[in-house]
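Note to self: keep these together.
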Amino acid sequence: MNNRRKLIVAIGAAAFVSPLSSFAQPATKVWRIGILTPFSNDGADAGLFESFRQGMRKLGYEPGRNIAYEERWAEGKLERMPGFAAELAGLKPDVIFVAGTPGVLALKKATTTIPIVMTNVGDPVGNGLVASLARPGGNVTGNTSIVGEMTGKRLQLLKQAVPRLSRVAVLGHPGDPIFAVQLRHAQTVARSLKIEVFPVEIRAVSELDRAFETIVKRRADGILRMGDPLIGPGRLRTSELALQHRLPTMVTRLDEVEAGLLMSYGPDRFELFRQAATYVDKILKGTKPADLPVEQPIKFEMVINMKTAKALGIKIPDVIMLRADKVIE
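Structure:
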């Protein structure tokens, strides 16, 4: 075979092999996921979103290979949420994952087409986020922490743990849309328990000292800390002040009890964030948000910090100790 003929054969072989090689190794699609949260990107709050990413990895989504995240953290400043929501919507990601009611409300105004997966939302039907839990409709689905309904239960448990309670401060961020829902449930249960409750508002962690001055001045003998974006960044200072003023405090999250507050009752939020990954996966595979029912937690955990109880001079009744899922010594 002469040189000219060898060259023709080589070119023909390359033309034949190259398309097959391209066909055998298609480019991997990279899904773009927006993340919006009013929380702070540190501590337990950051850990929650790592649970979500772990859930995505278990489903086969690896950053740098087939998924990319675009994140917006409001650091507890709810006024940032509308701007961040508009930014993410403008990027047109495949799905936006959002924690907390303020973020979902902001996204609902920013887009009616991009799928939204929510978690840690207290009252999605009451706030108009979905038409119903079974049939969400629209572009929003996910799970709910039902924090509103759980507020009354938390007050009951606090009263059982500290029977002497008669005046309880309800501490929370009034800018969170779930604030009024939580307060209403607390007031309803308080009447049946013959406890007086009153709201104390904070809009920043820096307002905690002033809030505790109000709580002490109004002679509260306990605190019901509601769920809101300031919990994470404020939990250590809240614990310090509660111990300083000897105020037993019921909270919504395990990490608050680990920080030194008396007790918590609520769902496993890390599990809720992991569960949200399954919603994102289903949507990326073609399921419409409107066809994915909103799920409620089915397991609730009570955690008690016995070191704090001893420091406050509180003897937790046996009936409460037996119900505890975790006791911190």
